[in-house]
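Risk register update: the risk of archive-format incompatibility is retired. Evidence:
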Amino acid sequence: MPRDGEGSASAFVEVDFDNQLARTKTIHKHLNPVWNQKLEFHFQDLETLRRRSIDVSVYNEAKPSGRNFLGKVRIHGSNVVRRGEEVVHRFPLEKKWFFSPVKGDIRLKFYFSTEPEPSPPPPPQTNTNSSTACTTGTSPTSTNIEVDKIKESIEEEVKVVTTQFINKQVVHSQQGVPVIEEDTRRPPPVTMMHSQQQHSMHQEEFKLKDMHPNLGERWPAGGAASSGGGVTGRTGGVVERWFSGADKMTSTYDLVEQMYYLYVRVVKAKDLPPSAITGSIDPYVEVKLGNYRGTTKHFDKKANPEWNQVFCFSKDRIQSSVLEVYVKDREMVAARDDYIGKVTFDLTEVPTRVPPDSPLAPQWYRLEDRRGEGKVRGEVMLAVWMGTQADEAFPEAWHSDAASVHGEGVQSVRSKVYVSPKLWYLRVNVIEAQDVQASEKGRSPDAFVKVQVGNQVLKTRGSASRTASPLWNEDLVFVAAEPFEEQLVLTVEDHVHATKDEVLGRLALPLTAFEKRLDHRPVHSKWYNLEKFGFGALELDKRKELRFSSRVHLRVCLEGAYHVLDESTVYMSDNRPTARQLWKPPIGVLEVGILGAHALLPMKARDGRGATDAYCVARYGQKWVRTRTIIDSTSPKWNEQYTWEVYDPCTVITLGVFDNAHLSTQGSARDLRIGKVRVRLSTLETDRIYTHSYPLIVLHPSGVKKMGELQLAVRFTCLSLMNTLHLYGLPPLPKMHYLHPFTVNQLDSLRYQAMSIVAARLARAEPPLRKEVVEYMLDVDSHMWSMRRSKANFFRVMSLLSAAISVFKWFAEVCQWRNPITTVLVHVLFLILIWYPELILPTTFLYMFLIGLWNYRFRPRHPPHMDTKLSWAEAVHPDELDEEFDTFPTTKGHDVVRMRYDRLRSVAGRIQTVVGDMATQGERVQSLLSWRDPRATCLFVLFCLCAAVVLYVTPFRVVALIVGLYMLRHPRFRSKLPSVPSNFFKRMPPRIDSML
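Archived output:
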């Protein structure tokens, strides 16, 4: 039965047996579909089969996710015969209810077998309506046949080119290991069941998963305290009483699961007895709890030492009911340190301390002898309490979880907060120079200016006229970071010939000497004398002393009204200008609870087995956070919560998981990337807590791989809804980016320089946030050419164009009277709109309003995450991966080939960006009514409703006149800033933040 409104149907069969559901692939646009697929179901015994029935239903696949009923057949299990006795049966399709429009029949073959069946080759296609009752899965289809044809042609062309040039043995340049590539020909056919099961398994593996963690505001009374072993009795009772009752204490750690720790603060000691052998004492303290031992630093010859160190033991790993604190004397000669005394604590008597309570006051304890029968000389000041990760002592404490880490590696396992350096754009306007003389007499210099700031070097063009007073009037823009450590070094050089440039004068100025500009007002220019260079520059050399000094005319300023881009604009986490005076108040607060990770893959070998020492890094705005490193765990639990001020909701927070390679050495080892997650704030509902497990997906030279899952709790709190909605009409970047914009080449170069500066400054922190981590978080290699990214961006565009193609096809079919009812209705609507043209715009906006309301049911329930299908990572060819992971410049072949190959990758990278930008614009149009950004869609839907009402009551001629005059208005009445609709559109969330 035709059910798609176009005289055809896209049919598939769904079979239900004993709560086991499977379906065939979809045959598009065909009233006589042929499947020839097999579906398999499992049952316990023949008696179960005899009591069950098989429901075979035929449906029409309707876009985007619906289906229409076409008929059904019910087969009783007693009619199923043994394999080898089966025949093809023909059944008429039955109605679901009396008025169901059903016609046609279906051919089935059903049987059972107690042995596994070999996979025969697929039978040839026939023209009969045939379907075997045991197939599973569907094949991915596009929304239009033309798009499918384009995809197939591109894939076929890529495969042909790849087959012609691929080698059997490809050396992966990044690993330096020869790998035998798979044959580029199509692999041998496998059974449909195996491929579909594998596809569905991958789809399920890469999905976002819901979580139900026991967060702070969901803790049951006493639940958190009673869980876990090791500490019972009075301590548990104290914690239960603390959480019970109406006076439950709130905490800022309400997005993480509560974790209990035993804290021991060793403050100092006094009156320690000297050693009988040396007459002095080198004291240190050892804290012992079960199998865990932590030691303080030791002091040489000091009877009253002060340590002030904190030790932290996880409650989940406590295996003893007694805490022992030893004071020992470090003996350099003897093989064993001398024992002075100890203090013992019963864990059932340890008090519980919860912030914002004041810190527990330390006390003096007399040291006991070895057997605990008497007191010895000396006292030690200690504080012992039970607390949570919200305790102030938690970040700097020695953790039992990292007891195997020693030396400098201890710093690298602690959680830290980093702040990006404050970046400025330095604009150097080189105007002109005077009295520039070439070294050769009688020759006019071909002068140009070279300016260097740190590692950044830019040059002006050569002067148009070769005179002693050259004129350039050219802007050179650099990136500088506070505190300003570099100088501006300017040299005037003479281009003697193609291989030689001669320096004629030099100038070095500190960056602090330049004016900071907060708007577009002009900056005063200055003349600077150039230092003498070459002969005569030294005071002691008087042989060819220069009689005069050249000078250069400059206009230099630090631009504070721009936002210095150190990340891509589509992943932008901050858009504030550099100058703090131009910042607006925050509109919200972002809170992220980094709960933990699950099922991480081993990243290194340790003691003959795989191990992972994972930590998480989050970046939003200028604030970077790094969790502590969990040693040797594939399912680490961090439970750390961080907060950021939000100045714009259309921003993205990036979180990455890495393996710590610096536990025992500070050498050249690199922290390995495990995966990355991006969350766009505008896709989050206000004041809702999102608890999900995000897949960590990474592309390797061998293909796409799931490295584990990152468990997060995210909440976006809006401080002022009106201010937030007002931002949707403002430009995404500060207005100086539109009044005096940079060129595309300048933005690319400046962004790379900004990323390099941020990576260098954060690498100087203690512990350092390493360069490979910062570059991965900032997507430093996103501009590199990749066949996979280019195909992904192309198919994003084609998926958008497919909707327009479908509309044109539908209109062509209306004109051809394929469906007379639809054609008559279109004629009626056309006549009404022609007769009453004032209804055109109200009807359009009202229709969009209704579409927005209809799509509200299908709005995304989860934040976006990495999409392997959208990234074209599942179907990527091995040779394309080898090209993507190749070095730049390439190491594949002859010098000429390498030059051409690099040029091709550079040009294709820009084409790839343009295609991606086209897809981004189209996806922004889609997001207007998709509720991907709930606040923006709500604004647009309300605007559509108001526009429909206003346009309904306003004469169409008046509206057309106003719109026409507005579009044709004089440039004097135009603003250089983008319009409100343009700003609103640019803030719509594209799908690019879900791409790998």
